[in-house]
Structure formats: C-alpha cells, structure tokens
Amino acid sequence: MTNIEGIKSGTTTVGIICKDGVVLAAEKKATMGYLVAAKEDTKISKIMPHIAVTQAGMVGDIQALTRYITAESNLYELRNKKRIPLSAAVNLLANILYGGRWSFFPYMIQMIMAGYDENGPGMFILHPDGSQLEEKKFFSTGSGSPMAFGVLEALFKEGMTVDEGKKIAVKAVKAAVERDIASGGVGIDVAVIDQKGFRLLSKQEVEKIIESFKK
User: 31 catalytic, yes or no?
Assistant: First the structure.
C-alpha cells in the first residue's frame, strides 16, 4: 500500500455513520508547506445529490478527481436511467486511483466517500493505490486524525442519530484544530447526507453546536 505518511499533512476530516444518515466534518485551513494558502477552504465536496467526499492530500489531485468522478457519476445515471449507488461511485473512483498508481505522479490523496442510497447510509475510505475500505462506524483522515480518532473512539455509540453525530464530529475536528498545527482555519464545515440528500450546515448552525459545548 502507498505510504500514507507522505500525504497526511495539513488536514483533519471526519466521517461518522449514524442510524439515519452520515455526518462529515472538516476544518478549513489549506497549507503550502509552512504557508497558510487559505483560511476558509471547503474540504467537503458534493459529488451527487446523495454522495459526497472529504479531501486530504494534494489539492490539485483532489480537485481533478472530484471533477472526474462527478462527470462519470452523471454519465452512469444518464446511461442507466437511475441514481448511481454509492458502491458504484466508490468503484469508479477506486479504479481511477488504481490506474494512476503506475504513472510517474500517482494521485496523492486520501478521501472519505459517503452517501445515502437504497441501502441506507454508507461510507468508504479510499487510498492512493486504489484500495477501498468500507467503514461501518467512523473514520478520520489527515494530520489531525490521531486527535480526532481519540474523540471518536471515546464518544461514538451504535445507533446514534445524525444530531448526535454532528456534535461528536465537531468535537473531533475541534480537538484536532487545538493540537495539530497544520489544521485550523476559520470555522468548521459540517455536512449531513440522509434520505433527503446532501446538506452543508450553515456557519450559524455549526457555531450553535460549538456554543452548546460551553453549557
């Protein structure tokens, strides 16, 4: 498997499986070595109305892959006259990554792809070598993931709701921001994917969650 340490810098993203959907969260700092390139970068991208990805790794690679998999998913739906299943979108992205492993510059990324389809909520982790791992509970990527995993391990519980998952996801990213120098930025992005589709929470909604921790 490709060495993940080389791409694990500058990001914290989190994904949590809940009984009624999936919660994704990420901090917003984008770095170029020791330079903060952007303080308000969005690291959660909608691929289809019911599928999204989180981003960790080389920005150019991530942006290209996001465009690629969005186009391929739309083509799938045009040809098959039905909504693309999450597993099919994951396989498409995994095949693209696998094909790039033999090039001089493989895709240097680690992504969480999550969605809600006829099988309910689902989440997969994709690596640069094209490997895909289905995750039934939670996962975190990026340099802040050790801190985030500590929170997730302590607070995750089976069968929790999306509302509960949002609070845990924010706590996990917040813990990483406070301890990982490569994570930060202005605020935290949180998204929910459920039977109604993808929705990115407003800044006010996220701030309300953070304020609830002080009570």
Answer: no
Identify the segments of the chain with pLDDT beneath 70. Answer: 1-10, 32-34, 103-104, 182, 215
pLDDT tens digits, residue range 103-156?
A: 667 788 899 999 999 999 999 999 988 999 999 999 999 889 999 999 999 999
Which member of 11, 13, 66, 141 is catalytic? Answer: 11
CATH of 4-212, one of 3.40.50.300, 3.60.20.10, 3.40.50.720, 3.30.70.1120: 3.60.20.10
pTM for the model stands at: 0.90
Q: What DSSP line would sit under the chain, residue for residue?
A: ---GGGG--S--EEEEEETTEEEEEEE--EEETTEEEESS---EEEEETTEEEEEEE-HHHHHHHHHHHHHHHHHHHHHHSSPPPHHHHHHHHHHHHHHHTTSSS---EEEEEEEEETTEEEEEEE-TTS-EEE-SSEEEESTTHHHHHHHHHHH--TT--HHHHHHHHHHHHHHHHHH-TT---SSEEEEEEETTEEEEPPHHHHHHHHHHTT-
What are the sequence ranges of the domains in the chain? 4-212
